[in-house]
Structure formats: C-alpha cells, structure tokens
Amino acid sequence: MAAPVTIQCCAPIAREPLAEAEAAELATLLKAVADPVRLRLLSMIGSHAGGEACVCDLTDSFDLTAPTISHHLKVLRTAGLIDGERRGTWVYYRIIPEVVNKLGALFAPLAAPAPAGRPVDVELITV
Prior knowledge:
The protein is α+β, with helices and mostly antiparallel strands and 127 residues long. The protein is built from 6 helices and 3 strands, in the order H-H-H-E-H-H-E-E-H. A 3-stranded antiparallel β-sheet has the order 1-3-2.
C-alpha cells in the first residue's frame, strides 16, 4: 500500500498566522494592486503580446494624464511587481512573475494537487 499523501486544505493565509515581516511584505504588494488603475495596468502589462508593454501602449486606455499613469507605474515598480527598461524615448514594462505569484499563492486553496491514482488521507476536525 502506498504511503498516504498529505494535502493542505486551506489557503496559506488560513493555515497559520503570518510572520510580521511576511505580513508587511504582502501588505505592500496588496496596497499596490488595491487601486483599480494599477490593477488594470498590471493586467495589461502581463497580458500584452511578448509579456511586456510600452508605456505608449498603456496610456490611451485611460482617461488620465501621462504623469498620473507614470505615478501608478512607479507604485507598481516600487512594490516590485513590475520592472521597466528604457528604449529610446519609451519605457517598456514587464511583470516580475515570482513577486506577482506571491499574491496568488497567498489565497491558493491547495498547495499542490493530489497525485492521480493515489489514495488521500483526509482528517476532518469538528469544533
């Protein structure tokens, strides 16, 4: 008989309390994406062809001034969610996957899917 497989049943945020440093780091990321404009910018950059977007590709999608868009991009960059590279007169932005993945992992319901064909032991605890 195969050894039982242990599955995490809850999102990481519900398994155990976050350490102070980890909570501070995640709060910075969450604050950065808590604005609708910044969340849209992050999505537009990540879904753009080639995985990067020129600031010139982003500004026309908003009814905001270029300095306001630049401010929002700076917040995302300062938080570490995006990086940019100047090419001539334009800056091209790309997502930093390992940082963005921290946000997704925080609320992921399972740490890893159960291996196919293997029995899974589940312990139910009632309160």
